[in-house]
Specification:
binds magnesium ion; alpha/beta; about 450 residues; 33 strands; elongated; seven-stranded mixed sheet; Spore Coat Polysaccharide Biosynthesis Protein SpsA, Chain A; binds uridine-diphosphate-N-acetylglucosamine; UDP N-Acetylglucosamine Acyltransferase, domain 1; about 25% helix; 2 domains
Length: about 450
């Protein structure tokens, strides 16, 4: 709360996002492993002390589900027809009517906003403005509403489609974030009409209407990178680039070594400890924590995984959700780990699949080891004891348990539990035929077929 004032944040998320050319609602597209809407909702939660209302389209149940997953106490309102941004805000009229000091309107397609931006807007209300609008100088203002100012005053916002040549020359653009003094919000919003080129109810008309009512309206300038709105896949890619820059910078400032920062892709919630080294070309999906001193080598891909202190992952490793690596674990090239706990000091250095498993402390998983966790109907677990040694190219058919310190001979298909300290071996006995090659060759030179030579 700013200065004890109550606040309602209305998030508009009912747009169809036609220019995205996608079957998915626009606000569910992702940057840094998180939907555009979840970025906005997370910012509102971090700002703290405000109620939130999200306006969604009737056919976008996925959007409502995303809101609930991120901010369970947000109220959801349905905009039955898509008739413009002011019409969308009024879908949440019941929330506004509860009476708040400040009413913020935030677009679900503006994911790079910061809590400080919200404070700036609310600060203007506390100084007496009835409507405060965020503006930025756009490198390319095409498509944005233009802020018409006179000295310090904001006179009006003109949408690109309705703007004159002179107005289009203005490079101060509407960022889309607006704040209304709660006492006037409904009165102003209800006066907005749809007599414009698109026949939509434009939220931006609130400025001229508020001025007609003798109210104070102000524009506050912020940097473009905070408020870029996403209407196309190209803008989505540009926002991804921007958020990656931010996340990489934050990681470097937290003591992480990124050898080639521009080649590392982070998720918004990636947590990297001090002295973590990330080599070039590593991708972090959502839900990854890497503890201090661990090294993530090139071309590794991690999602939903925990990497313990001083562990080494990669190159070319894949950690999938539920991979939990203890201290000093080594997961090497072409090793995939899913839903498995790898305890301290255990190693799987080459070409393995470990899924639905526990690998005990200090165990060694040989090259080509596979936990056969799926029988085409259900998943089963493999439990490998402390210090066990799994010979190369073994298949462990789950459910199966390998006791502490047990050995599995290379190439075995293990279908039954192996007690601690035992050797389990499953392969045909080796046959050796002394001098066989020489006999074969002499038979061949005699013009006989190899088939006849074999016995
Ligand atoms: C809007 C602003 C423009 C500003 C730009 C900044 C208006 C009229 N125009 O244009 O001045 O420069 O954002 O990015 O406000 N939405 C609904 N229901 C609707 C229409 C839109 O929920 O009926 C939502 C969309 O999901 C989106 C947001 O409102 O999150 C903005 O709509 P969008 O169509 O992207 O507006 P812009 O053309 O970008
Ligand atoms: Mg937009």
């Amino acid at each position: 709360m700013t200065g004890g004032r109550t606040c309602l944040a209305i998030v508009l998320a009912a747009g169809d996002g036609t220019r995205m050319l996608s079957s998915q609602p626009k606000v569910l597209h992702q940057i840094a492993g998180r939907s555009l809407l979840a970025h906005v909702m997370t910012c509102l939660r971090e700002a703290g002390g405000m109620a939130s209302a999200v306006v969604v389209a009737p056919d976008h149940s996925g959007v409502a589900a995303e809101v609930k997953a991120n901010t369970p106490d947000a109220e959801i309102f349905v905009q039955t027809e898509r008739r413009g941004t002011a019409h969308a805000v009024l879908a949440a009229a019941a929330a506004i009517a509860k009476g708040f000091d400040d009413v913020l309107v935030v677009f679900g397609d503006t994911p790079l906003i910061r809590t400080s931006t919200l404070d700036t807007l609310r600060g203007a209300l506390s100084k007496g403005a009835a409507v405060a609008v965020l503006g930025f100088r756009a490198a390319d203002p095409t498509g944005y509403g233009r802020l018409v100012t006179k000295g310090e005053d904001l006179i009006a916002i003109v949408e690109h489609a309705d703007a004159s040549e002179a107005e289009r020359a203005i490079d101060l653009c509407n960022a889309g974030l607006m704040a209304f003094a709660g006492a006037h919000a409904l009165e102003v919003l209800r006066k907005i009409g749809n007599g414009n080129r698109k026949g939509e109810f434009y939220l931006t008309d609130a400025v001229a209407i508020a001025r007609d009512l003798g109210l104070k309206t102000v524009a506050l300038e912020v940097m473009e990178d905070e408020v870029s709105g996403i209407n196309s896949k190209a803008q989505l890619a540009a926002a991804e680039a921007q958020i990656q820059q931010r996340l990489r910078q934050a990681a470097l400032e937290a003591g992480v070594t990124l050898v080639a920062p521009d080649t590392v892709y982070l998720a918004a919630d990636t947590k990297l400890g001090r002295d973590v080294v990330v080599e070039p070309f590593v991708v972090f999906g959502p839900g990854v924590t890497v503890e201090a001193g661990a090294t993530i080598r090139s071309f590794s891909h991690l999602t939903g995984a925990h990497v313990g202190k001083d562990a080494i992952v990669g190159p070319y490793a894949r950690l999938r959700p539920g991979a939990k690596l203890g201290e000093k674990v080594h997961i090497g090239n072409f090793v995939e780990v899913k839903e498995a706990v790898i305890e301290a000091g255990a190693k799987a250095n080459h070409l393995a699949y470990i899924g639905d498993a526990r690998v005990g402390e200090g165990a060694n998983i040989g090259a080509g080891t596979i936990t056969c966790n799926y029988d085409s109907v259900s998943k089963h677990r493999t439990d490998i004891g402390k210090g066990a040694f799994i010979g190369s190219n073994s298949a462990l058919v789950a459910p199966v348990k390998i006791g502490d310190g047990a050995y599995i001979g290379s190439g075995s298909v293990i279908t039954r539990d192996v007690p601690a300290g035992a050797l389990a071996l499953e392969r045909a006995q080796q046959v050796v035929k002394e001098g066989w090659v020489k006999r074969l060759r002499s038979l061949k030179t005699m013009g006989k077929k190899a088939g006849q030579a074999s016995e």
